[in-house]
Amino acid sequence: MDEMDQLEYGRRNGGGNGANRIDELSTVPVSQRLLLLPHCLRPTQGCPGKMTRQGLDCDGCTREDCKIFHIRQAALQAGYQNLCIAPGGRLAVRCVAEVRPAAIVAVACDKELEDGVAAVKALEWQGPAPLIIQIPLLRDGCVETDVDVAYVNQVIVGGV
Ligand code: SF4
To answer: Cβ(157)–Cβ(74) under 8 Å?
Structure first.
């Protein structure tokens, strides 16, 4: 996706990221980034992931029909150390509070993004609040949701 496509994507999807924010992300070391994914992207049948206090644990899973699998692979290959696959906004915000990242890439439905951004800004930060890149779902609804995996992967590996 080129720069104009990214801007158009942001407008169409209400993410409001734009090329400037993506460029800003590239200045943040991967070790200081947090990737938040919603667990509703997983397949409805037979997901072997275990829900833990840190979110869904996908370690060892090789299901190539799962969007989370492909995004997680890209993030791990890029060196992300902080990744949370959350069943809801409350756990996602708790991850943010524990990790204290300099930048967050958040995939979620519009409502969760809106609430999440407000909750993150309401946390106490010693320096500036983290940069938040919002990537809205293409289809929400709590199960069998969808996202543009190629776009997410392009964003998360930006500047790595
Ligand atoms: S990669 Fe997908 S199918 Fe595998 S455990 Fe994670 S969410 Fe479930």
So the answer is: yes
How far does the centroid of ligand 1 lie from the alpha carbon of residue 99, in Å?
A: 22
In this structure, the residue with its CA closest to atom 3 of ligand 1 is 47
In whole angstroms, how far apart are CA 13 and each of 5, 7, 107, 124, 160? 12, 10, 12, 29, 25
Task: State the distance from the centre of ligand 1 to the C-alpha of 4, rounded, in angstroms.
Answer: 33
CATH topology of domain 3-156: Rossmann fold (3.40.50)
Tens-digit pLDDT string for the chain (160 aa): 444 444 444 444 444 566 678 889 999 999 999 999 999 999 989 999 999 999 999 999 999 999 999 999 999 999 999 999 999 999 999 999 999 999 999 999 999 999 999 999 999 999 999 999 999 999 988 888 999 999 999 999 876 6
Please give the number of the atom of ligand 1 that sits closest to the Cα of 67: 2
For ligand 1, atom 6, which residue shows the shortest CA distance? 58
Give residue limits of the domains in the chain. Answer: 3-156
